[in-house]
Inverse folding.
């Protein structure tokens, strides 16, 4: 499982912080969108600028499964396609041996 913006695929670093309306700074995916200081539930999470698109998305949509990308997912979220090509996959080597 990884966490990424459903609109632009920006991936927050583990020490990235979001700010609540109460002023508290915390990593919102540590608490599933709940501010640990005041208890406010953030049903939507905002992508960050710079780096991301700055748009709000449903918190649940930020959670992605690693290997379960289907054609329907690509159609629904074309930004995923950018992840496909340049990454070397160690498993592709062993396939050629056989
Ligand atoms: Zn708060
Ligand atoms: Zn984004």
């Amino acid at each position: 499982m990884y966490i990424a913006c459903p609109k632009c695929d920006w991936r927050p670093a583990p020490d990235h912080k979001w700010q609540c309306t109460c002023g508290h700074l915390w990593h919102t995916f540590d608490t599933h969108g709940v501010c640990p200081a005041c208890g406010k539930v953030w049903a939507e999470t905002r992508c960050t600028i710079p780096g991301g698109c700055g748009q709000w998305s449903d918190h649940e949509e930020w959670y992605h499964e690693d290997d379960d990308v289907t054609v329907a997912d690509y159609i629904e979220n074309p930004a995923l396609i950018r992840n496909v090509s340049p990454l070397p996959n160690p498993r592709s080597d062993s396939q050629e041996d056989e």
Q: What stands out?
A: Strands lie at 2-3, 18-19, 25-26, 44-46, 56-58, 63-64. The chain has one domain: 2-82. The CA atoms of residues 4 and 11 lie 4 Å apart.
